[in-house]
Design goal:
With 178 residues, this protein is an all-alpha fold.
Length: 178
């Protein structure tokens, strides 16, 4: 029994740490919303690196279908990477739209999680997080593309803060149980 209690507390400890990290990252994203533009450059380089990796992998793949598939993937990754590096503003606008879609999907998943945990202590925070995330997705969609320069950092920050609060609340409730 004691072993279960300590492993439960350890898990909730990590959940609390994760919640605090999410809160700190959220505050930083709101304080420096323009810094989200740097993300486009990083993503561009990651995509180029992935393109090269797919090209290298193509020569180690057996069968013409596998080789062609890897070359096609390398071209798609490479084109996306070059696009983001050559047009960071357009990349940021595109990334803003992708973020809106991501937050919409996250909100749907959080709502599904709420219905799984709704009888649990503090499960309402998950629903609250889902509602805030859905609101942010709609807000991005309605303001897109004009506010792409500052919106990503601000919205991600708000989402991270509420996610951090919900995780801290759940960890606290789980600790009280164990």
């Amino acid at each position: 029994m004691n072993g279960d209690n300590s492993s439960g507390r350890s898990g909730t400890g990590w959940m609390m740490v994760w919640g605090i990290v999410m809160l700190i990252c959220g505050i930083a994203a709101i304080a420096l919303p323009w810094a989200s533009g740097i993300v486009v450059i990083v993503i561009g380089w990651v995509l180029l690196f992935s393109a090269v990796s797919h090209l290298i992998f193509a020569f180690h793949t057996h069968g013409i279908g596998g080789v062609l598939w890897q070359i096609l993937l390398a071209l798609v990754y490479g084109a996306a990477g070059v696009f983001m590096l050559m047009n960071p503003l357009a990349g940021l606008v595109t990334l803003t739209l992708v973020l809106a879609i991501f937050l919409l999907i996250e909100a749907a998943l959080e709502i599904a999680l709420y219905f799984q945990l709704r009888r649990g202590m503090n499960a309402g925070w998950i629903l609250f997080d889902a509602i805030v995330t859905l609101f942010l997705a709609i807000l991005i969609w309605s303001q897109w593309p004009s506010s792409a320069l500052w919106f990503i950092g601000t919205i991600i920050g708000i989402s991270l803060i509420f996610s951090g609060i919900s995780r801290l609340s759940l960890a606290s409730a789980m600790r009280r149980r164990t």
